[in-house]
Design a protein that fits this description.
Elements lengths: L2 H11 L21 H8 L10 H19 L18 H34 L8 H15 L2 H23 L8 E4 L2 E4 L1 H36 L17 H4 L6 H19 L6 H23 L3 H31 L10 H4 L8 H8 L12 H16 L4 H12 L2
Antiparallel strand pairs: 1-2
Helix pairs in contact: 1-5, 3-4, 3-7, 4-7, 4-9, 5-7, 6-7, 7-10, 9-14, 10-14, 10-15, 11-13, 14-15
């Protein structure tokens, strides 16, 4: 059965189907597909129906973080406070231990979260029967983009470019560390340093870019769905015309965002240990990063603002017309005539069957065309800010950092 046939069948069943039904099982799975997925599957690291994220996270962290530690023995086990210590390098912890691990662990969470959200379009059903074919086409295009060899090749190319920059940075370093030996003869990159250049850094950057690309694929899929004919209801109790289930999708990316923030926070902390930081500067950094994170998720959700805005406008006009008829009818019943523009029109006289639209009108007035809300994204916002706050604590008083964090999360 094709994607379109599966989508059409699910849409036709609509709300009459009580058991939970997945949207074409095995079709749009955000963590599946692509050359890297196939490589891992052939190596036995995962299976088609089992991502084994825990085991793979341990493996990739071992490759990125543990191997350089072992290659640097015995220097690796110098005190954390010792200059150039591997265990004391916050950047190593942020990128190769926390970042790489979080990116892999996030795959299961992201895949499950997006699959449920996409399936809800059919379970509600929100997609109108006339748009079922177009919905299937949109999913097909998203699948092709998800599996793109070119996209992953670009991610790999940029990861290798990052490795070159890491090499140049080590070659020009004038400070001895776990990665570089500095002597009278010159600078020499250690075995641990070479491993991070060839394996650790490319792996971190590749997983990061691959995750961002797949989110862009999802974003474009949502924006394409937003242009379809959707069965939205202005008086829906969720306050978003029936689309509020989408507002919380960013929380599927909690671990992924935490991984990025850990790397950024570690870089900030390394810089702060050498220079002073004011509360104002810290607040600016934290606010800027939160804005970037929210913009990442606002981009796909903003596409639904137009249909929701049109729904609200049209519904208010129609309910307003109905309200005028209803209340003028009641006015005639009580006063015997209308106070303004009295009429003996038979249609107006026989308006006893008109329902009172007041409640529906008030509910429609509260309809929000914005799906991204503070309450819906608190978890992902916290994941973005906590590592930054941890970096700030290295210089600023705990109370000041907590105050900034609280203000941003409660905006």
């Amino acid at each position: 059965m094709s994607i379109e046939e599966k989508v059409r069948k699910s849409a036709e069943q609509g709300t009459a189907t009580s058991p939970r039904r997945d949207l074409s099982p095995g079709e749009y799975l955000a963590a599946h597909g692509g050359p890297f997925f196939e490589l891992q599957r052939r190596l036995g690291l995962l299976r088609e129906h089992a991502l084994k994220t825990g085991r793979r996270a341990l493996l990739f962290v071992a490759l990125a973080w543990l191997v350089p530690l072992l290659l640097g023995l015995p220097r690796s086990f110098l005190s954390v406070d010792a200059p150039g210590s591997y265990l004391g390098d916050l950047g190593v912890w942020g990128r190769f231990a926390i970042g790489v691990g979080a990116f892999v662990l996030a795959e299961q969470q992201v895949e499950r979260g997006l699959h449920i959200k996409l399936g809800q379009f059919l379970k509600a059903p929100i997609v109108a029967p006339g748009s079922v074919q177009a919905f299937g086409d949109a999913v097909t295009v998203a699948l092709a983009r998800r599996d793109s060899r070119l996209a992953e090749a670009v991610c790999l190319g940029l990861a290798l470019l990052a490795a070159i920059f890491a090499y140049l940075n080590m070659r020009t370093s004038g400070v001895a560390s776990w990665a570089v030996d500095v002597s009278a003869e010159g600078r020499r990159i250690t075995a641990a340093g070479w491993w991070t250049i060839v394996v650790s850094q490319p792996l971190f950057v590749f997983l990061l870019l691959r995750g961002l690309w797949r989110h862009l694929v999802w974003a474009q899929l949502l924006r394409r769905i937003a242009r379809l004919e959707l069965r939205l209801v202005a008086t829906h109790p969720d306050g978003n015309g029936g689309l509020s289930f989408l507002a919380s999708y960013p929380n599927a990316y909690v671990l992924f965002i935490f991984g990025i923030s850990a790397a950024i926070g570690a870089a900030i902390a390394k810089h702060l240990l050498q220079e002073s930081l004011t509360t104002t500067t810290f607040s600016t950094i934290a606010t800027g990063w939160l804005v970037i994170v929210l913009a990442l998720f606002a981009y796909p959700l903003s596409a639904f603002s137009k249909p929701l805005g049109q729904l609200k406008e049209r519904s208010l006009l129609m309910l307003g017309t109905q309200a005028t008829r209803y209340h003028r009818s009641n006015e005639r019943k009580i006063l015997g005539t209308n106070v303004v523009a009295a009429s003996t029109d038979e249609v107006q006289q026989q308006a006893d069957d008109i329902a009172d639209p007041t409640k529906q009108f008030e509910t429609t007035r509260k309809l929000s065309a914005m799906l991204l809300s503070r309450t819906a994204v608190v978890p992902v916002a916290a994941a973005a800010l906590l590592p930054i706050a941890a970096a700030g604590v290295t210089i600023l008083p705990y109370k000041e950092v907590f105050s900034v964090l609280k203000k941003l999360l409660l905006l």
